[in-house]
Amino acid sequence: MLFAALLALSAVQLASAHAEVDEVQWDNASHPTKVNATAVEEIADIPGTYSLKVYDSSDVQVDLGDTTIDPLDATKMSVSVTPGLPPGLYRVDWETVSADDGDEDSGSLDLLLTAPVGGSVTLLSADGTAGDSPWRLPLLALGAVLLGSIGAGGLALSRRRGGSAR
Question: Tell me, what's the pLDDT at 156?
């Protein structure tokens, strides 16, 4: 009987849920104004208990501190970012509280911002001078394929760092 009670308690512990963020992406791959995040369950909409913070590669915060939860889908939240961010790797730190059971969670995801597709590229010839090269079209095609494979929302490198229940 005691064993059954302990087993039931451990099952309750295992069922404990967290609103872990498992995806982040830019709202616009070439000129982002926001970072959007999606959690695995609904986030409690209690001011001060959830946040998205975005940092550049120099660890400078580039978000505007206005994290909001989507009123139509509580698994989604977003934060505005400084206009005109340069291409590079950004870190998104997140904090949530589960709407289901009040469990707190936090972590980090990396997010890549690529150069705009319409950006200018100068190709160098074999002698190091700018100009047409026999490799120009194949290199442009390869670049288009690589950019297309990244996707419209940027590339989320879903490596979770330091996420833990509090």
Answer: 47
Q: How many domains does the chain fold into?
A: 1
Q: Confidence band (pLDDT; 50, 70, 90) for 6?
A: very low
**How far is residue 153's CA from residue 28's CA, in Å, rounded to a whole number?**
6
Is 137 domain-assigned? no
Helices (H) and strands (E) in the chain, counts: 2, 8
Domain that holds residue 59: 18-115+152-157
* C-alpha torsion 39→45→46→47, nearest 10: 90
pLDDT, one tens digit per residue, over 66-107 is 999 999 999 999 999 999 999 999 999 999 999 999 999 999
Instruction: Specify if 108 maps to a domain.
Output: yes
**Is the distance from CB of 28 to CB of 36 less than 8 angstroms?**
no
How far is 40 from 161, CA to CA, in rounded Å?
17
Q: How far apart are CA 74 and CA 50, in angstroms?
A: 12
The percent helix, strand, coil of the chain (3-state, each to 5) is 15, 35, 50
Residue 17 has pLDDT above 90, yes or no: no
- What DSSP letter does each residue of 63-114 carry, written as one string? B-S--EE-TT-TTEEEEEB-TTPPSEEEEEEEEEEBTTT--EEEEEEEEEEP
